[in-house]
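Reopening this one. Same input as before:
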Amino acid sequence: MSNSRFALLLLSSVVVLAGCQQEVTFPLDYGDLLNIVYSQHIQPLFHQKCATSGCHTATSAAAGLVLDGWKGVMRGSERGVVMIPFRSKKSHLVFHINRDSLRAPVAYPPMPPDKPLRDAEIKLVMRWIDEGARNDAEEIWKFRVCDESFVGRLVLGARRSPAQIVLSPDGRTGYVSTSDLTGTHRGIQVFDTQTMEVVGEVTDQRIRATHGVQLTRDGKFLWTTNEQSDNIAIIDVATRAVVEIVKVDPSVPDLPLGPPRFGPS
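Same output, byte for byte:
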């Protein structure tokens, strides 16, 4: 690898949908939405109610939380993550916007204090989180660290939402965990960091919706946490095959059936 240092960012560009040129107006009939599009339905809501002057903008960043873009939502606040994909009732973002303890936990202080979200809007945010908290389109962008210049991008594929990236010890190979629109994608995508092209994929019927990824110190094995199958996969990097599955509980089935039963506390 050259002496140049690069940074890889998980970003998502806006999908241009034919026939969707009109501006989003409020209130929307969220119950009629077949698919939630982050840039059309979630971010405008955050802009209207949360990312306002003195609150959760990049300038003010109250409590360290910036809600003027998907990246800020995923980064969380000064106290940690505020949103857990697929787990709206365990997401602190929901705790603070929710006013109904029968729907989800309620936390103080209620937010926004002067512009509370309507029930339909809270349900929309919760549904978006429960469907994976996805952005519109899925890309990885590469920047040169020394001058922060843009170098290249990798398009992962339609409706693939990147979660985390880890690089091989020599920096030439990247592994990215992704979920598709249904949250059932069963693997890791492998890409070349020089050409920014997908060069392979690790898939296995026993894993679903991979999220966390970590290489062992010697770079020989990749560990993944799999959000929708309640297990951890150990992958042989050389063969790109799953060599072991670690269940979070003995009751977890060999193949993922139905919704997961174990979530973060």
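So the earlier flakiness isn't reproducible anymore. For the record, The longest helix spans residues 38-49.
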